[in-house]
Specification:
- By secondary structure, this protein is of the alpha/beta class.
- The protein is built from 17 helices and 26 strands.
- α5 (244-252) runs parallel beside α11, α13 crosses α17 (557-575) and α14 (461-475) packs parallel to α17.
């Protein structure tokens, strides 16, 4: 009964599809029940359908769009909704607030970059906006590119935008571009409070206020259909794990000149002098993106010599953290729509901080609301559990650290070492992926266990957290990432011969301390699985299973050590008969708080 679309009643006068959450739905539901409405489900979405029918009963002269605007004004929370009605045949109305929503446009002829006007009220003067015609349009506010179709506002001021010359046109509403790429690569990203209305093939975009841009740009997606197909892989997640040699190359492409050892991040280039004068760096994110911030914090502190604060977006908002004008705040999100991260961004922006977005989605809300940013170029990520986006996020933050220290003579040897390590990184990732069969063997011994402890420190502590999150997401097992230095402060009590333990011991500056933790674990009859450096036979003797990782620069080891954890979580999920791409209770883009 909770599946979409939801209806206003048995007569199906109004139906709605909704992505998000309505925080005041209980109040609305109670009000509507006093008006005689009978609810068929427990979901908040049904309140929207019944509320719009109630408003229609009070305002029978309203247009469909006006009914949607009135309904939305009564809702609190984050939502994207698409409405249909038997009372308004041939019409579809969509709107958003806090949740992503885009409109795909598929026309008979090809379209080049253009925009569609936003209408505010009926008194506005009619305008023409060119999607293409043979000549210039005198009423356009700016010259337009030649394309195949013109969309105009009728002279009777109906504010409707028509395709000219009889071109057939289709519109698609979706929360993510990957859902419509098989139909069209031309999309409009709607802003909060936008109302998009399609009536008899005619598209118009409206707002209840005049805030924001006067037009919505039509964007051309560079995504290919093959990118959102599984190919020869059994799941999207497996495909995305094995795409990482290519995805890290795409992240670095055009940004690193390995011969000259130059690093250029075009999105933030103009702001680098301002960033170098800042008081501190703040990195704010959720989930896997938060772990990417932890993974790069140590190197950022080393190469920028600035204090680096890492915060979970939800906790950051709960604390009302002091933010200053000379702070630089990084907001990291694969989708660019994460609600808590977006809330923290707006909080910091209102206090005058410089905002830098790091996302994988062009045109996302975080992209649009940041002062500058870096697109990680990892390609579409369909699986709910993030894999290649994590490694690309870490890589972008490492490249930012390299940009920040390019004029520091004392740091040049370290900088050069890391750049050369980045050059070898794709090949090293390929070697790590060759461990897949070994990881499967380990997974077969672990998949019936109830818990998994993952221990490490230094650059690999983030790998422990991220690996534990992947195991929790995909396998529904309890898993915990433990800082090896904290072992004696409580976690050591969990260790015995029955608890599966995985430890990361790379030959870096904390190797001796990690070996001490290994000795403590084995002394309590622990039987850890080890992730070690290639050729480290001495450490391998401590365990029945040891996964050998190619030796790289210490700051890049976290990118390599996380891949066996991704493979392990994948194989555990398959062996436990779990849905790898769509774990229960989770969504790819967390658009509600």
């Amino acid at each position: 009964m909770n599946c979409h679309p939801h209806r206003s009643g048995e007569d199906n006068k109004f139906v709605v599809v909704h992505n998000g959450i309505i925080t005041n739905y209980k109040d609305i539901k109670q009000f509507l029940m006093t008006k005689g409405f009978v609810f068929e489900s427990e979901t908040d979405t049904e309140c929207i359908a019944k509320l719009i029918q109630h408003i229609r009963g009070q305002n029978v002269h309203y247009t469909f769009r006006q009914l949607v605007e009135q309904t939305m004004s009564q809702l609190e929370g984050a939502f994207a909704c698409v409405f249909k009605s038997t009372l308004y045949p041939g019409e579809c109305v969509a709107t958003r607030k806090g949740s992503p929503l885009l409109v795909g446009i598929k026309a008979e002829g090809g379209l080049e970059s253009d925009s569609i006007p936003v209408q505010f009220n009926l008194e506005d003067n009619p305008k023409s906006y060119l999607h293409g015609a043979v000549g210039d349009c005198p009423q356009s506010p700016a010259p337009r590119k030649k394309t195949s179709a013109m969309f105009r506002i009728d002279s009777d001021q109906t504010e409707e935008i028509h395709p000219c010359d009889g071109d057939a046109v289709e519109y698609f509403f979706a929360s993510d571009a990957s859902a419509i790429i098989e139909h069209t690569n031309r999309v409009i990203f709607l802003e909060d409070d936008d109302v998009a209305s399609v009536k008899l093939g005619v598209l118009s975009i409206h707002r209840p206020n005049k805030e924001g841009e006067l037009a919505r740009e039509i964007t051309t997606l560079k995504m290919e259909i093959q990118q959102i197909m599984k190919g020869n892989f059994s799941s999207f997640m497996q495909k995305e794990i094995f795409e990482q040699p290519e995805s890290v190359v795409n992240t670095m492409r055009g940004r690193i000149n390995f011969e000259l050892e130059q690093v250029t991040l075009g999105g933030i280039k103009a702001y680098v002098p301002e960033i170098k004068r800042c008081r501190r760096l703040l990195m704010i994110a959720c989930g896997t993106s938060y772990h990417s911030a932890i993974a790069s914090r140590q190197l950022l502190e080393e190469l920028t010599e600035l204090p680096v604060m890492v915060d979970l977006a939800s906790d950051f908002l709960d604390r009302s953290t002091p933010i200053f004008r000379d702070d630089v705040c990084f907001f990291i999100s694969q989708s660019g729509e994460t609600a808590d991260t977006l809330g923290a961004l707006r909080y910091c922006k209102s206090r005058g901080a410089l905002i830098i977005g790091i996302t994988n989605t062009v045109g996302s809300t975080i992209c649009r609301e940041s002062h500058s940013g870096v697109h990680i170029n990892a390609g579409p990520e369909i699986g709910v559990a993030s894999t290649k986006a994590y490694t690309s996020q870490v890589l972008c933050l490492i490249m930012f650290a390299l940009v920040m220290c390019e004029d520091r003579i004392s740091l040049q040897p370290r900088r050069s070492e890391i750049i050369q390590g980045l050059k070898q990184l794709p090949d090293m990732i390929g070697k790590v992926l060759e461990l897949d069969d070994k990881v499967l063997t380990i997974a077969k011994e672990l998949y019936e266990k109830r818990s998994l402890l993952i221990m490490g420190r230094g650059f690999n502590f983030a790998t422990c957290l991220e690996g534990a999150l992947k195991v929790k997401e995909l396998t529904y097992m309890h898993s915990e990432g433990i800082q090896a230095g904290e072992l004696k402060h409580g976690p050591l009590a969990l260790v015995d011969s029955t608890v599966p333990i995985l430890m990361i011991l790379m030959r870096d500056h904390v190797f001796t301390k990690c070996m001490n933790a290994l000795e403590q674990v084995t002394a309590r009859d622990g039987k850890p699985i080890l992730i070690i450096e290639e050729g480290d036979k001495e450490t391998a003797k401590w365990s029945k299973h040891a996964l050998e990782i190619p030796r790289s620069v210490d700051a890049l080891q976290g990118i390599l050590t996380v891949i066996p954890m991704q493979l392990l979580s994948y194989h555990l999920a398959v062996l436990r008969d779990c849905n790898v791409d769509c774990p229960r209770n989770l969504a790819k883009s967390v658009t509600v708080e």
